[in-house]
User: What shape does this take?
Amino acid sequence: MLRTWALRHNAVLTFLITAVVFTSVIGVRRYSTSPNILTIATCAALYAALATSLKVAPILRQVLATLGLATVAAGMVFLSDGMLVSHLAFALALSLVTLYQELYTYLILVLYMLVFYTLFAYLHPLTIFNASEVGNNTLFWSIIVMLLSIIFSLPALISAYFSTNSLRSESNLQSALAEAALRERQAVEIHDNVVQGLVVALYSLEAGDSESAKDSINTTLSSAKHIVDGLLQGGAVNTLRDTPASGDDAKN
Amino acid sequence: MVMMQKTRIILADDSLDLLKVLKKIIQEDPELEVIKLCHNGLDAYDSTLELNADVLILDISMPVIDGFEVIKLLREKGSLTKIIVLSGHSFDFYGQKALDLGANLYIEKGISVKSIIKDIKELS
Assistant: This one.
């Protein structure tokens, strides 16, 4: 399970680090016209570095990588001077975080988008939208790009949902099989103990040692009761038998 | 006077009580000698090779390595020791597998020791 998570996290990190390098290079070259890019690239690099650190708990590394992806997506928007198509970087980020198969990482990114677009649509709309494309309708376009990002990432989200369900079913099946194997082993052990005890009693009688035979039967009886009581502890037991005990059965 | 060669037997079972009572009955026969009692499969395997026993009476369900593994390893080593499996399970459960691996006889526990002694003598 952890191995699968590590593989998925590494895939997200690879994309994130590549995007950070790309954004940083462009940020340095275009610093004079768009200083926000370098700030964003630095933040994203910090997120990526922390998400890579093995000292950080996996759950936090996954959140940091998600924030890194969101920051890089915002960087792409600034990098393109707010071209509409660049806003779909958020759709790509949303699709990528579904690799974690956790709804909260997806929701963190949606929340990030909400804050990002709400803030910039009111405060500095023309830093995230190209005036020639959207005119004054920045709020409208903010809603549109958010909706489109979510819609485009839906297939990945649905696929992650079914994949998680399938993994859970497989895990449940494996647990059930392990439990069945354990029950079978316990049944064989109980059978062995009872048979051993009775055989010792039988052979003791054959050796003329009736005291040992009696001891063996008593020990076996008490041991079997102890084991079965332990196995049934806490569980509701059906006390209705399908067939009578063998002694009664033999009489019929 | 000619000394009669006794059949040297190793008994392997995880039940100490069973080993003791089996040894007691088998030792009463002047032609048989129990040379070792083993509580686990590995001990049974090592002792059979080391002491070159004539007969190994072996349980299947045992700690460390089970009876099947003991039979397999002994036959792979070329051991000629006769192996009698004495199991708490019916022949249908383990019998054929034990014989396929190289056991000479499969006996269900509960059969009289006199009958087991007869089988040992026929085999050895």
User: Anything to note?
Assistant: The mean pLDDT of chain B is 92.
